[in-house]
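Possible race condition, two jobs.
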Amino acid sequence: MPAVREKPDRRNRLVEDTSLNWKDESPNYPTDKTRRATFRTKAGKKVTAFQWAVYDFTRKVPRGRVTTYKDVCTAIGQGSPRSVGSALRRNPFAPTVPCHRVIASNHYVGGFFGEWGPSRCSAKIHVLSNEGVEFTTDGYLATKSVIWRG
């Protein structure tokens, strides 16, 4: 049984950290056009075609690897790193769509739960460290060999 740790959730409340138990597949992730057309987020919003493309690519990033916001938009052939970050900020499928595995192009850890800052970065580093991805003390990727480009 994995150790129970606490991590901040989207409202900065502490919740049990189940990152060691995250699965890459979910029966709740719509993969066909019909389910995608009718899917709504908890806020009642539709997911755009661009967001689906970002989520489809991001959910392929293997455990123990990371990609960059720029690599995501290059791979899907549209958008910008900022628009990829915006889509991931609204990710209704975490952890099935492992948005924590996307970092900045300069290999800085980047945002987490839609925010940048020391507390968010340390939380993201903690989750990625549990998956085998290491960062320097100032938040940069320790080894480039874990970068995944699809």
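Job #2 (started ~2 s after job #1):
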Amino acid sequence: MTFPLQCSALRKNGHVVIKTRPCKIIDMSTSKTGKHGHAKVNLVATDIFTGRKYEDLSPSTHNMDVPIITRMEYTLIDIEMNTNDEVKGRGFLSLMTEDGTMKEDVKVPDSEIGDKIIADFEQGLELMVTVVSAMGEEHAMSHKEAPKGNN
């Protein structure tokens, strides 16, 4: 899901869609209008899920898509490890919302974050996992120990 926004209204640390990927703007500059045209906005942004860097140059009066990003916190119930050697990847997190609904379609990240979630879970810590979703994609982005004494 996205919404249009004029290039000139975009800001550093805001979000934008570049090459169909949701990105966070890390740098932007505006060139002055030339003899024949519009001011241009040069955007440098990183993919919010992969960290890959993207650049885009667009007239300041044109609209660009801005992704709608949601961030939800879930309680980690279990980690389903992938035991099938033919299927690459780690498996899925079993997460629970505040109202007790189960969510089991978020993959264990193939990164240091995933390693840390697995290590902390195996130590018996009760964890809260933050899941960021944008444009139909969901990724576990961080985790922390659940506050004690809520139950």
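The CA atoms of residues 95 and 103 lie 5 Å apart.
Logs attached separately.
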